[in-house]
Amino acid sequence: MKKLTFISSITFILLLSACSKKAGQEVPEPNKTTYKVGLSVEKEKTSLDGGTEPTLATPIANLVNQLTYIVFNFDTGNEYARVTQTTDFPGMGEIDFDLPVGNYIFIAVGSKSLFGINKYYRDNEVPILLPLAEANMQYWQPNPTMADKHYKTDDTFYAKSSVVSIGEDQTINLVLQRVVGKLEVLVEDVPDFIVDVNFEATGFTLKDQKTFGRIDDNAGYEVSNANGPISIYILSTERPILIEISGGGVRKTLSVPIYRNKRTIVKGKLLVPNISTGFNVTINDKWLVDTAVVHF
Predict the structure, then answer these.
(1) Partners of 138 in beta bridges
(2) What is the pLDDT of residue 147?
(3) CA distances (Å), origin 194, targets 100, 162, 186, 251, 255
(4) Which of 52, 138, 177, 290 is a Cys-bridge partner for 120, taking CB atoms 3.0 to 4.6 Å apart?
């Protein structure tokens, strides 16, 4: 996968500031008592071989390049506070909020790919505030054109609390769940080939993680096996994606299902009669870390 270079930043947006009221913004009461709420985020534990045995905890800073926390007032549905941490922030995965008495929902989103909340083009640092029913995350795009979105998917995680009543100091633990799958492609009879990915999503809603948006299918996302086995992160797991495999003067199109935290393995031959696709699609529950060699 493509490595991302970014400028470290820590953005704390407390939506109780004395600025003019925006849509979805809470209105504070003066001199209101607040309580310290510590938020701790961790990745669900896995075994060394990628199984389900809870033996290995992954440090957050090794898992994502950006981690964003969003606090919503459950009673109004409005966003109350937002914090973004990057990898060289000391203690990434830990944060404190000062919150008045009330009912809240806490959400954390983390990814290797940088992303925005309620926006996909980073033209400024002014936050867009939306209620939980409309709020979303989207990978940052290089331009503001809706029809020209690029593939930016990387390992991505999500956590959401149940409704939490705040009336005293407390600590809340969120467990991140992977929301992407992997597509792995092996062609057995052609040494050099290209995979073109279509119908990939560019973001998901914060309330229920429904994916939306799509990369520009005219350009798609092409990746070659020249640098090793093809292993592509895919966010769109609610419906099959369309892939085109090209090599040896032949091009074949396949509809391929992708599942969260699972590997979809496409394996077969290009140089076969047209009456057969020449490819088999299997789903593997064992997730391999990026540094592992993928064996088919």
Answers:
(1) 116, 203
(2) 83
(3) 55, 44, 10, 9, 16
(4) 138
Alpha carbon 226 to its chain centroid, in Å, reads 27
d(CA 177, CA 156): 8
**Angstrom distance (rounded) from CA 94 to CA 39:** 6
Output phi, psi for 244, to 5 deg. Answer: -120, 125
CATH code that applies to domain 11-178: 2.60.40.2100
Region 140-151: what's the mean pLDDT? 90
List of residues 6+ apart from 187 with CB closer than 8 A: 193, 225, 245, 247, 268, 269, 270
Mean pLDDT score, 275-289? 80
Tokens coding 295: 């064996």
| Within this chain, domains 11-178 and 181-284 share the same CATH topology | yes
pLDDT of 217 > 70? The answer is: no
pTM over 0.90: no
Q: Which residue matches tokens 């979809």?
A: 264
Per domain, the residue ranges of the chain are 11-178, 181-284
Fold classified for 181-284: Immunoglobulin-like (2.60.40)
Q: What is the mean pLDDT of the chain?
A: 84
Distance CA 141, CA 187 (A): 31
